[in-house]
């Protein structure tokens, strides 16, 4: 994995969208970063040394990166004025050319950091030293007033902009031959061509974490924040999840995709409530809900779910009961509430405790293959997880704000009764979430959270 972090030192990014000159570019295009790296490399004392050329050639051969950047909706913009700038006093410039307006748009992101993530970067170690030298010489991105600090980042990076042929945003990206093209344009004194492009989609963060341990079968999170409406406790998680699924099926193109209906062999989407639990003063009230997409979901089904979530967001209402209609909205990637931040639920940990009771697939018996530890271990295996080294079961969860298992409404009308209990699982190595186990996992039952959180800070 390779992550290049760009920090805008003045808190602003000044760059013109190459398609609409009066608009600011956002997010910064990967090709613009690559051009800045090439420019910085040219200023090195060893100008175009073998290691520098090799590093840049390797970088342009990688697939388009993911980005962690502020959402387009959260960006502030300066008022753009039409400006006329005198021509340069240079004999090579045609001073008789027609005057044309110029614009100087500026984007003000709420977070001055933008991260470019290449998850698959084989051979990075061989070029790391050269890339660090090049990155340290980058002083600006876009206009020269967009002062930056660029460095290789080793901290976890959860992207929210993804290369996707169905995406609505078109970004310029480097590709093989771009390095040579930039050099050639410079030697001829010409502006470089825009270069190749790639469609991107802006979405919620994913559960992919750079870890050598097992990964969750769940991928993208689509989170909806509760804005108004009567509070419900975590014991009503099943009700909220059922209403969310029903709303999505109503908003989806008809007939709804199999991943929502639960029919067919395609992976199923999970709907779950997100309660305030696991912190010092947690009271267990539900702060929002989430739609979890399987990592192996087909593209057409994924698009259908995204369309349904977007329609539900525009409608802005979720009917939980006839007397309790929530006002909801999509949560942004810069969400301050940790409960509504997907990284809270996916951070790797060795110890996981249930937030909602687990519906065991079978009633435990004192027979080989039917004991409670064996049933739980089999549920972990089906979820793609290793066998826990320790399993603790009971009525109570070890997390603050979680009521006992009997307080939960866990039975669905169309399902036979199941045994419900809270579980505490300990693994031999850190496991990345989210973890959903048991018969009610597609409706938020059997949802787990890390037991320890650096002192369990306040929400």
Report what the structure shows.
The chain has helices spanning 30-42, 50-60, 124-135, 178-187, 237-251, 258-261, 299-315, 342-346, 372-382; strands spanning 2-8, 66-68, 76-77, 107-108, 113-118, 148-152, 161-163, 169-172, 197-202, 218-228, 270-275, 286-294, 317-321, 324-330, 349-354, 358-359, 390-394, 420-431, 448-450. The chain has 459 residues and is of the alpha+beta class. It folds into two domains: 2-202, Alpha-Beta Plaits (2-Layer Sandwich); 218-450, no CATH class. A five-stranded antiparallel β-sheet has the order 11-12-10-14-13, covered by helices on one side. Strands 15, 16, 17, 18 and 19 form a five-stranded antiparallel β-sheet that branches. Strand 13 (317-321) and strand 14 (324-330) form a beta hairpin. Helix 2 packs across helix 3. It is elongated.
Overview features:
459 residues, alpha+beta, Alpha-Beta Plaits, 2 domains, 5-stranded antiparallel β-sheet, 9 helices, disordered C terminus
């Amino acid at each position: 994995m390779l992550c290049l972090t760009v920090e805008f030192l003045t808190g602003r990014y000044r760059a013109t969208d190459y398609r609409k000159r009066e608009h600011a570019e956002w997010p910064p295009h990967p090709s613009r970063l690559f051009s800045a790296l090439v420019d910085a490399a040219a200023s090195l004392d060893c100008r175009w040394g073998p290691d520098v050329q090799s590093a840049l050639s390797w970088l342009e051969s990688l697939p388009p990166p993911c980005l962690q950047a502020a959402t387009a909706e959260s960006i502030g913009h300066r008022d753009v004025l039409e400006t006329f700038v005198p021509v340069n006093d240079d004999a090579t410039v045609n001073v008789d050319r027609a005057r044309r307006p110029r614009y100087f748009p500026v984007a003000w992101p709420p977070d001055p950091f933008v991260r470019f993530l290449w998850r698959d970067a084989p051979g990075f170690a061989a070029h790391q030293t050269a890339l660090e030298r090049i990155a340290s010489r980058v002083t600006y991105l876009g206009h020269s007033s967009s002062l930056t600090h660029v460095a290789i980042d080793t901290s976890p990076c959860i992207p929210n902009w993804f290369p996707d042929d169905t995406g609505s945003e078109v970004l310029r990206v480097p590709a093989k031959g771009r390095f040579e093209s930039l050099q050639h344009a410079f030697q001829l004194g010409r502006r470089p061509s825009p270069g190749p492009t790639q469609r991107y989609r802006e979405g919620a963060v994913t559960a992919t974490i750079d870890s050598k341990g097992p990964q969750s079968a769940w991928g993208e999170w689509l989170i909806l924040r509760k804005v108004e409406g009567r509070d419900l406790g975590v014991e009503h998680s099943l009700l909220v999840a059922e209403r969310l699924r029903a709303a999505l099926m109503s908003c989806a193109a008809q007939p709804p995709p199999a991943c929502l209906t639960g029919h067919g062999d395609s992976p199923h989407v999970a709907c779950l409530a997100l309660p305030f639990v696991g912190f010092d003063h947690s009271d267990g009230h539900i702060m929002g809900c989430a739609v979890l997409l399987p990592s192996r979901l087909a593209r057409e089904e994924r698009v259908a779910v995204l369309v349904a979530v977007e329609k539900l967001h525009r409608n802005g209402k979720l009917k939980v009961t006839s007397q309790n209609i929530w006002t909801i909205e999509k949560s942004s990637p810069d969400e301050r509430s940790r409960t509504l931040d997907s990284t809270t639920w996916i951070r790797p940990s060795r110890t996981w405790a249930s937030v909602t009771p687990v519906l065991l697939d079978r009633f435990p018996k004192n027979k080989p293959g039917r004991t409670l530890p064996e049933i739980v271990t089999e549920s972990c295996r089906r979820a793609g997880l290793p066998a826990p080294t320790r399993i603790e079961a009971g009525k109570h969860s070890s997390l603050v704000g979680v009521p006992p298992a009997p307080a939960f409404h866990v039975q669905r009308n169309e399902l036979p009764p199941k045994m419900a209990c809270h579980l505490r699982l300990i693994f031999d190595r850190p496991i990345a979430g989210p973890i959903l186990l048991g018969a009610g996992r597609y409706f938020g039952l059997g949802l787990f959270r890390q037991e320890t959180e650096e002192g369990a800070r306040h929400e």
